Amino acid sequence: MQDLSPVSSQSCGPPGSFPAVGDYHLHLHPHDPYPGAPDPGEYPDGLIEAYVEAAAARGVTELGFSEHLYRCVEAAPILGRFWETDPTIPASVAGATEAFVPAEQNLSLESYVAAVLGAKERGLPVLLGLEIDFFPENLDAVLDLIDPYPWDYLIGSVHWVGGWAVDSSATQGEFERRGPEQAHDDYYRTLTALAGSGAVDVLGHVDLTKKYGYRLEAEPLHWYRRVAAAASLSTTAVEINTNGLRLPASELYPSPAFLAECAAAEVDIVVGSDAHRPADAGRGYGSAIEAATAAGYEHRVRFARRTRTKVPLIGSHDPNE
Ligand SMILES: [Zn+2]
Ligand SMILES: [Zn+2]
Fold first, then answer.
1. CA-CA distance, 210 to 176, in Å (whole number)?
2. CB 3.0-4.6 Å disulfide test: which of 93, 113, 138, 221 passes with 89?
3. pLDDT tens digits for 70-86?
4. Distance between CA 276 and CA 26 in Å, rounded?
C-alpha cells in the first residue's frame, strides 16, 4: 500500500488539518460476536481507537460511525413490531424478522452518541453518523427522536421492505415467492421513496438485494435511473459500500452500471466499509476509489454537522487491500 498523505485543497483546509480519506460506514457493535467484542451497548476504552488504528493502516484517516438506529432501545417503541403489521408476508418471513430484531435491540442511542462525541473530544478524527431504516410511516417520528443529537450525517438504508428482510439469508426465498421482478420492484420502490424524501444525507448499499447472490437476469437499469434521479433532486449522496466484496454478492454496492447512473445524474458519493469490527475498518477502500474513478468521479463529499464539502478522491490505493 502506498503512502496516502492528506491531499491539500481549498475545500479540505490546510495540509494535514483533516485528512481527505474517509470511511463513512462503521458500526461499533457486531451482529455476531467476535473474540474480544464489546458487550452489547458497552464502549470499552480503546474500542474507537482500535478502529482508528486499523483504518489508518489502510491509509483511511477519517472515520464516520453510523450505528444502526433499529438496534437502539430508544427506537423500539417507534419501530414497533413491524413484521406483524405487514399483511403481505408469509408467517415464516415475519418469523425470521421476529427472531432477529428484538434480540438485536440491545444498544443505547444515548451511550452511542456519548462514546463517539467523547472520541471527538479526545481529538480522534471521527464523525457522528447514524444508519436509519426507512419505513415511510414512521419517518417523521424517527427524525423527531434523533433530532436532539449533533449528527454529522445520516445514512438511510432499506434492509426491510415492510416485514421482509431483503438481506437475510433466511428469507431469500421471498424473491421467488414474489417473483424476481416484483421483489425487486418492491425494494426499489421503497428505496426511491427514501431517496426522494431528502431526510438523510447518504443512501446506504443501494443494491442490497444482491447480497446473497440473488440477481435479475438483466440489471434493473430503469430503477437505477429512478433512484439516481431522486437522489440528485434531493441532493442525497450514495455510498460506495465495500462490504459486498466480502459477501456472496462479490461486488461493491452499487454495481458499476448503477454507479454510472449516479455519476450521470451528478449524485455525490461517499465511501464506507460497513465494518462491524475494528479489523474491517477501511477495508476495500482502494476498490471503491477505483470504481468511483472508472465511473468518472473526481470527488467524494465529507460531512460535518450535516453540511457537505467536496474533497478530492485519492486514486493511489491498493485495490487488494
Ligand atoms: Zn449491521
Ligand atoms: Zn446497512
1. 14
2. 93
3. 999 999 999 999 999 99
4. 6
Which three cell numbers, joined as nine digits, stand for 312?
Answer: 478530492
Q: Give residue 241 CA to ligand 1 midpoint distance, Å.
A: 12
Give 159 Cα–ligand 2 centroid separation in angstroms. 7
Contact between 96 and 159 (Cβ < 8 Å): no
* Separation of CA 125 and ligand 1 centre (Å): 22
Phi and psi at 52, nearest 5°, equal: -60, -45
State the Cα–Cα distance between residues 202 and 240, nearest whole angstrom.
Answer: 10
CA 182 / ligand 1 centre spacing (Å) = 26
- Only one residue has cell 463529499, namely 301
Distance 8 CA to ligand 2 centre (A): 32
Q: Which-ligand-closest: CA of 208?
A: 2
Domains parsed from the chain with CATH numbers: 19-312 (3.20.20.140)
Ligand nearest to the CA of 107: 1
Q: Could you read off the pLDDT of 155-193 as tens digits, one per residue?
A: 999 999 999 999 999 999 999 999 999 999 999 999 999
Residues 6+ apart with CB under 8 A from 14: 8
Task: Pick the ligand that lies closest to the CA of residue 71.
Answer: 1
DSSP for 198-233, written as a single string: ---SEE-STTGGGTTS---SS--HHHHHHHHHHHHH
Determine the distance separating the centroid of ligand 1 and the alpha carbon of 183, expressed in angstroms. Answer: 22
Integer angstrom CA distances of residue 61 from 11, 64, 127, 297: 17, 10, 11, 20
Q: Please confirm whether the linkage preceding 319 is cis (ω < 30° from 0).
A: no
Supply the mean pLDDT for the chain.
92
**pTM of the predicted model as reported, rounded to 2 decimal places:** 0.92
pLDDT in tens, 128-160: 999 999 999 999 999 999 999 999 999 999 999
